[in-house]
Each structure stands twice: as structure tokens, then as C-alpha cells.
Amino acid sequence: xxxxxxxxxxxxxxxxxxxxxxxxxxxxxxxxxxxxxxxxxxxxxxxxxxxxxxxxxxxxxxxxxxxxxxxxxxxxxxxxxxxxxxxxxxxxxxxxxxxxxxxxxxxxxxxxxxxxxxxxxxxxxxxxxxxxxxxxxxxxxxxxxxxxxxxxxxxxxxxxxxxxxxxxxxxxxxxxxxxxxxxxxxxxxxxxxxxxxxxxxxxxxxxxxxxxxxxxxxxxxxxxxxxxxxxxxxxxxxxxxxxxxxxxxxxxxxxxxxxxxxxxxxxxxxxxxxxxxxxxxxxxxxxxxxxxxxxxxxxxxxxxxxxxxxxxxxxxxxxxxxxxxxxxxxxxxxxxxxxxxxxxxx
Amino acid sequence: xxxxxxxxxxxxxxxxxxxxxxxxxxxxxxxxxxxxxxxxxxxxxxxxxxxxxxxxxxxxxxxxxxxxxxxxxxxxxxxxxxxxxxxxxxxxxxxxxxxxxxxxxxxxxxxxxxxxxxxxxxxxxxxxxxxxxxxxxxxxxxxxxxxxxxxxxxxxxxxxxxxxxxxxxxxxxxxxxxxxxxxxxxxxxxxxxxxxxxxxxxxxxxxxxxxxxxxxxxxxxxxxxxxxxxxxxxxxxxxxxx
Lengths: 346, 242
Prior knowledge:
By secondary structure, chain A is mainly α. Chain A has helices at about 1-10, 25-45, 50-75, 80-100, 105-125, 130-150, 155, 180-200, 205-215, 215-220, 225-250, 255-260, 260-265, 270-275, 285-300, 310-325, 330-345; strands at about 160-165, 255.
């Protein structure tokens, strides 16, 4: 604190020339800090299967919400159809492993490419729609995918789903302990955060934000709005597809009701982002750290007493956040921090 | 005539159903010109502006920019060519800082964050907003937001700047300071087209003025000639006072 003060004292009255913005390097340092803390937490609970399972879910959903946030938060396109890209990833890896014993590590690539391709193809027409209309169209997409997944049972095993054979081994991404899964999800989370940082602190990130705030103003500065949206969607869907693959290997079971569930997948990414801080880099992670453990607790303690009570609590939480903390946990923290710094200067 | 023709508007017409918002307008703009277009409410100024920036496509007629017909080009294509514009209701990106707003313009010809940030900081200095660089655009005053919009357009390295009623809602002191800014930019060689409702502003520029009424061009000349034209007085104040 005192260091910056002496600097401003020495500088001339008006800060001319170089005014700074948060750079990629700063974000990478922050992500390294987050990785250290989470790594330490995993080490601490390395022999507790309940906590490790909860951690795996938290990291996976933190990563998926961060991916959603690229197009939904930075770009402001509230997609409710990300479950489709998630399911595509899950089914791709499940099929390649089930029928041809292809290592899930390798099938992450086709899963990613397929999710990205489908995302671009379906977004091309739907991006003409704005605001709530876009959200509704993507929600419908999820429902269509659900019907298709049930119908084409050759690819998906239909409503009965597909059980993936248990053959433990690193090459099969199947393990007897929960620790490797927690570590894989942790790795995926860090990859997602780094990709998000690359996007946000680049031209694409600024263009997405411009498109989010005002499309007319964006066009006036030479931005090809559709291209920017499609690029953001492609990156977002690619990561979501990978998440679907990892999820399929973690459960070793895929079926339409799980992969294409509206409340547990499609809307979940958005809900986590909203509570954590939509459009901020670390908001989705903060949301996942809050929501997923809470859900685990509620499911354990409440659903036995009143079925569905965990959903009630989540719904109430969402209402409270959208009324009083529009910018989520991270947004509220930023406001407090700014206030604190102003007081500090006076 | 060594001057270079920048913008040529030829028989430009825009109809909305039976209403002719802009009817058969033609005028030229040379490199380094400062042209004002004035007219009472509903004269078709904003429609004309939107035809020039690509927000609307003409019903007939052409917009020629440096010899190239751009009548059907999108707004983003025109920005690539060198159009910079502001909006009548200012469209700053409120949740981003003044610097970031300007960077969004700077990114058009600069790929990297640091290049764009340096260029944007320089431009903010030019429009007198250097000390507000880190402030969120949403908390700037109206006159600062107008300056910021000009900064964003300048950051595009535009060769023609189109200002849509940038003085609207400003007090006299602020109007004077924005006029001063536009004059400075013009003196530095920028071609400027100002659409304005406020007659005082037009008088202050002392450059060529076009007057529109009911979608037609009714006068063309220096402010003092144009503003004493009975047809113009009639358009602004009604028949009796003419």
C-alpha cells in the first residue's frame, strides 16, 4: 500500500501516457495462486472419499461454468443449451471406449471438435435472436437433443443408457480410488481458467464484452458481431465437450436423463455463474465452491426428509442473489474492495 | 482543385412506406472539410446519418467513399474503411473503464492488448480524459461520455468522423469545450461531419452548413448566409416570423 502511495506522490499530477489494464500475466499469477490453494486442499483430504467425490464435482462444475461464462458471461448470450455440447462430449467418449476400447484421453479430441462443430452450426441461426429469445431457443435445443438421444439407441443406448466397463488403468481413465478423478477435474479446472484468462485479456474478450453491452456500438467500431459470438461459442462449447467426456468416465454410465437434465446440467452452469458473478473471470469458480458443497450437504440432510427440498433451497438462493447481489459473490467483493480502497485514500 | 474527394452523396433517398425521410440528397465532402448538417426535428438528419454509417440501406441513390460505392456496406465494413461515429444517445460501454472503451476502438487495427492500451491512452490524452482513464464509463458525466465516444472513434484511426448531435444535453460551458475539441481535431486534418440541431453550435464552426427540412436540402453555404435565409428561418420558426 505504502509503495503505491509513494509512487503516486512522485509522479506528476495527472497520470499521462501509460494507463494500465489487467494483463494476462497478472491473471496467470492469480490462477497459479488458486491452483496452489486447491492443490493443498486435495493433499489434505487425499484419503477421504466423500470429500474427494465432492471436490471432483466442484472442480468439474467450476470448470464447466467457467466455460459457459465465455459466451454467457463475457458475451452476454444466455445459453441454456450447453447441456447438448456436454452430452455430445459424453457420448463421443463413451462410444469410442465402449465399442473400440479407444482411450478416453485420445477421445477428448474428437469430443471437443464435435461439440464445437455442432455448437457453431446450431448457433449460426439462433444468434439472430436476442436476449430471452435466444435463451428460450437454446432451451428448446436441449429438449430436442433429449428426444434424439432417446430415439437413436444405437449411439446412445436409448433411455436405458450405456454402462461403461470397469477396467482400471490410467490409459482407460478408470481408477479404483477417487483421488485420481479429483486430480483430473482439478487439472481441467485450471485449463479452463487459463483459457478464460486468454480470452478475457485479449481482443476477443473485449469484443465479446462490447457485443454484450451494445451490438450497435460494437458494429460501429468495426466488430463483426456474428463472428465474435460464434468464436466465443466455439471456445465455450469445446471446453464443455471435454467436460462431458470426463463426466462420462467418472460416472462410467451415460443416459439422456443424466447428461441432458435441465436442472442438473443445462441450467446449472448458468446458475453457478450467476451466483458466483457472471462475466467475471473467477465468479463461476466461486459459485461452484459455494453451490456444489451446499448441494451435497442438502441432498444428504434434507432430501430424506422432504424430497426435492434441495432444489427449493437452491431456487431461493437464486432469487436472493438476483435481487440483492446482481453481480454475484465476486461482484459484491469487488464493490467492497473498491469502497475499502477509496476510504483508505482519504 | 487539388483537394481529394472523400465522401460523395448522390441522389440519396430513403422511404419508409409512403414517407420520404431523405429525398434525393446530393453533396460532396473534401479531405479536411468540416461540414455541418442542421435542420429542425423530423427533418431527416438522423436517417441521413444512419444511411451514411450503414445502419440503414438507401431506397435509391449512392454513398461513394474515396471512389468506392459503399451504399450496401455494413456498419462494420465502413468502420474498417475509416468511418468513425458517435451516437445521438451516447453508447459508451458502461461497465468498462474509459481506457477499455477506447481500446475497443483501438483493437480494429491492433491485435495486441498492450499496443491497444498504449494507443487508447494516447487518444484519451488528446480528448482530455487521461485523468479519467481508470474510471468506469457508467460513472462519467454526460460531456465526458461524449468525449469518450469521440475517443473511441478516433482510436479506429478513422479518416472521417461523423458526430450525431454530440452537444445535445450539454450546458453552454461543456458545449464550448466540445466545440473546441472538434475544432482542434479538424485543424489536425481530420474530415468531420457534424449533424446538429443546435444553431449556436453551427455558427461557432464558421464552416459550410447544409440545412435539411422534410428530407430535402433547403440551403447550402456559410452559417451567416444560411441562417439569414428566409426558407431556413421558416423551417425553424414557422411562417409568421419569416
